[in-house]
Amino acid sequence: MIRDQETLNILLDSIARFVREVLVPNENLVAETDEIPPPIVRQMRELGLFGLSIPEQYGGLQLTMEEEVRVAFEIARTSPAFRSLIGTNNGIGSQGIVIDGTAAQKDYYLPRLATGDIIGAFALTEPGSGSDAASLRTSAVRDGDVYVLNGTKRYITNAPEASIFTVMARTDPLKRGAGAISAFIVERDTPGLTLGKIDKKMGQRGAHTCDVVFDNCRVPAANVIGGKEGVGFKTAMKVLDKGRLHIAAVCVGAAERMLADALRYAMERQQFGQPIAEFQLIQAMLADSKAEIYAARSMVIDAAQRRDNGEDISTEASCCKLFASEMCGRVADRSVQIHGGAGYVADYAAERFYRDVRLFRIYEGTSQIQQIVIARNMIKAAQK
Length: 384
Ligand code: COS
Description:
This protein is of the alpha+beta class. It has helices at residues 5-23, 27-33, 38-46, 65-75, 80-90, 95-100, 103-115, 232-268, 280-308, 314-339, 349-356, 367-383, and strands at residues 120-123, 139-143, 146-157, 164-170, 181-187, 193-195, 209-220, 270-271, 274-275. The protein has three domains: 5-115, Butyryl-Coa Dehydrogenase, subunit A, domain 1; 120-228, Butyryl-CoA Dehydrogenase, subunit A, domain 2, CATH 2.40.110.10; 234-382, Butyryl-CoA Dehydrogenase, subunit A, domain 3, CATH 1.20.140. The chain has twelve helices and nine strands. The strands form three sheets. A four-stranded antiparallel beta sheet has the order 2-3-7-6, with no helix packed on it. The protein has a three-stranded mixed beta sheet with strand order 1-4-5. Strands 8-9 form a two-stranded antiparallel ribbon. The longest helix is centred in the middle third of the chain and has 37 residues, at 232-268. Bound molecules: coenzyme a persulfide.
């Protein structure tokens, strides 16, 4: 749902200009230094990029899902590290509070997340629990008006930058499965919370992940999201439904960028006396990429509109994440292929994007998890 096309166009134009004029020229610097320069972070704050999905009453832009995916198409036309920094505040690092938080939790945390004054992170994955999220072992034992958290979370995006964490922990350590999991807001400076060393990743330099370790970390009972024990897994799944759709939109934007680069290269690069874009085998790669991007873009917009209409889009979000992330991988591969030797060296963005986009098929649920969600929902619907 687009509330006001003109206002949205202004926002999209200013983001597209920011991407073109500021972010793209700084991609190599970010990759080399593994850091987004602080003046750029400031500009991202000024543009409102940290609060895209946070309600207006808390200082955010309260974009509808359709508006948000259209913004994601634009912001993803550059190094994914930039999107990653704003990604958690708009997605998994804030939406637990937005969707299920109490009024007091919203009042206290959302305004600072919306401005980017603080960064939020989402702590679900553990050393022994990834795709099987309901098997997580971090425990939260009630002691008066606090819970005592113990356990380790792994690969937590933006953890090194984060001031608050949405942490899924088991409040009934003897009970297995999803029903014993609760979601907590844990502040970074809580005694007993420490961070591991920053992970060395395949790509997305400038975006950071690390372990988050809880050692008798005492968290106020008031920080249970929604004030209710035992529903944290559902909160996490709802957050991920939205997150998966957002990531699918990011895949579309990244693929559009890679295809634009590949097309430009193919039109410039001369072989056998003509631009390689004139060769039909190159054209096939360009055309397949174009068609697949168009399909993914259409899926994402359709699913976003359905979510705005109040539909349950668990299946559609997984369809979008599955198709768009796999599509993005194929486009990255073709982009390197079209660039030939130049695609394998770091002078061109194709090599960096090839590594950066690999993560899209893994995080917020692997392609295999998306397949499971889709098929299970199909079976459930057929049994009704
Ligand atoms: N929205 C709301 N509730 C949901 C839901 C959703 N999208 N998906 C599941 N639930 C509910 C179920 O209805 C069920 O509730 P009841 O017990 O009341 O029936 C409960 O949550 C447990 O669901 P389910 O039985 O399907 O859980 P499973 O353990 O079988 O796991 C998968 C489901 C595999 C889909 C889940 O663990 C998952 O998404 N794994 C991937 C995790 C992930 O994406 N990690 C990425 C790291 S975070 S960046």
